[in-house]
């Protein structure tokens, strides 16, 4: 097993005034993966990125990038880290190519027009290279931010809400660009509140809330472990009570007995099997229903459930 590209242990950050943004974060990132960090506003996502990128000074814990302790080898490690911040940041009257050249020089890299051309072409920006940034669309400006972050050929790239404020079509185009970056060997950490984004792109997913990591796992493993089945039986006639033969299942009545609702399963297919068993029992015992709708949990459902679970402090 290769060493992780990023290893964070017991990372803490308390701001002046006592606001605790990070409360003992442990996180390991594998080389070559796309990792999605999900969390609501104020969860600590941007603070975590800032700590790794040297913009936020932690109050506790350790960060190792490329095997180096960032407390003592920050400059060496930072040269291999790219950041696309949530907020657009550049001289709007400058041209695209000058901004990308400038970013490359900021990291001490020698001028290399072939590298700049390759980056701009890969992001469909070559035809806009001499355009002033103020003339570009929102989606193109996002691409310029990515080009700047790639200008020094980083091995690890942070994307902080990269598709915030762009429409669905541009968002999907951005996903294709990010997948292409992974193909080039760039490890990507993506923060987002678009659950669809994580489902589409990520290899692994982490959920952060109130400065603490609630869960980290492969996306498919999360769906398997925490996925649930929900089924709605439209009862005809309505039920006054749940029949004894159905009481062993996780069911309840809604809408005055007009709907029997099942919520259960464990992501292994148990839910589907129990819904089928429910339907068989009801048919055998003459318990009538006019319709049946079922659905499996999405990553968004699991995310919402995790955020709504009581914390240890509240328990």
Automatic annotation (TrEMBL):
It comes from Aurantiacibacter gangjinensis. Pfam families: ABC_tran. SUPFAM superfamilies: P-loop containing nucleoside triphosphate hydrolases (SSF52540). GO terms for molecular function: ATP binding; ATP hydrolysis activity. This is Multidrug ABC transporter ATP-binding protein. The keyword Transport applies. PROSITE patterns: ABC_TRANSPORTER_1, ABC_TRANSPORTER_2. Keywords: ATP-binding, Nucleotide-binding, Transport. InterPro entries: AAA+_ATPase (IPR003593), ABC_transporter-like_ATP-bd (IPR003439), ABC_transporter-like_CS (IPR017871), ABC_transporter_ATP-binding (IPR050763), P-loop_NTPase (IPR027417). Residues 6-235 form the ABC transporter domain.
